C-alpha cells in the first residue's frame, strides 16, 4: 500500500504537464486554473484534518506557495519553446539536483565519503540523462528549438520550485499545516499575475485547467501521506520519477517526431535519470 502511495506523486506530477498541454491555454490561464483547484482541495483538507497554524507556519507556507506559482508559471511558459518531453527532464532533473545539494549542505544528508561519492555519481547520471533526453541530430529540423532562452527559463523555474520544497523544511513546518496556507499563496500569486488579463483571458480554458490542478493536488497530498513512512527526502526523490511518466505519455499523446538515434538517446537518458534518482534515494536518512 505504501509503495503504491509513494508512486502517486510521480504519477500526478508526471501527468500534470500533459493535462495542461492537452487543455491548452496560455501559461497564465493554466496557472490560474491549477491554483483554483489547489485552493479548493487545500480547503477540504484543512476542514478534514487537525492542523497547527501559527504566524510563522502561515507565513512560511504562504511564501512556499508564492515560489511554487512563480516556478510553475515559468515551467508552463517554457512549453511555448520546448516540447513537454524535452522541458520536463530539464525541470525535474535540475529540481532534484537543487534539493539534493541543499539537503547535503544544509541538512547534512551526506554524512560520509561514501555518501559524497554516491551523491556526485548520481548527479552526474542525472545531468547526462538530461542532456540525452534533449539530444537532436544535426540534420534534424527541431535543432533550433533547443536554445538558451527556454533552458534559462527552466533553470529559474527550478530554482523557485526548489525553494518551494525546501523552505518549509528549513523551519520544520508540519506537513498537514502546510497545505492550505500554501494553496492560498499559490492562488494569490496566480490571481495577481492575471490582474491585467481578467477581462481578456479565456475562462473556459481556465476551467479546463482545474483538472491540471486536480492532478497536482492529488500528488501533493499523496506525498504528505507518504512522508511519515519514508521521510521527506526519500518521498520527494521517488516523486521525481514523474519525469518517466511525462516522457512516456507525451510521446504517446503528442506523437513527437524523432529519429531512431534520438529515440535511443531519450531511452538511455531516461534510464540514467532513473538510476540517479534511485541512487539519491539510497542516501536519504
Structural features, described:
With 285 residues, this protein is mostly helical. It is built from twelve helices and no strands. The protein has helices at 2-23, 27-48, 55-78, 84-106, 113-133, 148-170, 175-194, 203-208, 210-230, 232-239, 242-254, 260-283. It starts with a helix and ends with a helix.
Task: Provide tags for this entry.
285 residues; mainly alpha
Q: Which band does the percent of strand residues land in? A: under 5%
Based on CA inertia axes, which overall geometry fits? globular
Low-pLDDT residue intervals, each spanning 5 or more residues: 140-145
Average per-residue pLDDT, rounded, comes to 87
Order of helices and strands: HHHHHHHHHHHH
Number of strands: 0
What profile does the largest beta sheet have? none
Radius of gyration: 18 Å
Cα distance spanning the termini:
21 Å
Q: Enumerate how many helices there are, as a single number.
A: 12
Structural class: mainly alpha
Provide the helix percentage: over 70%
Blueprint (SSEs and pairs):
Elements lengths: L1 H22 L3 H22 L6 H24 L5 H23 L6 H21 L14 H23 L4 H20 L8 H6 L1 H21 L1 H8 L2 H13 L5 H24 L2
Give a quick rundown of the structure.
This protein has helices spanning 2-23, 27-48, 55-78, 84-106, 113-133, 148-170, 175-194, 203-208, 210-230, 232-239, 242-254, 260-283. The protein is an all-alpha fold.
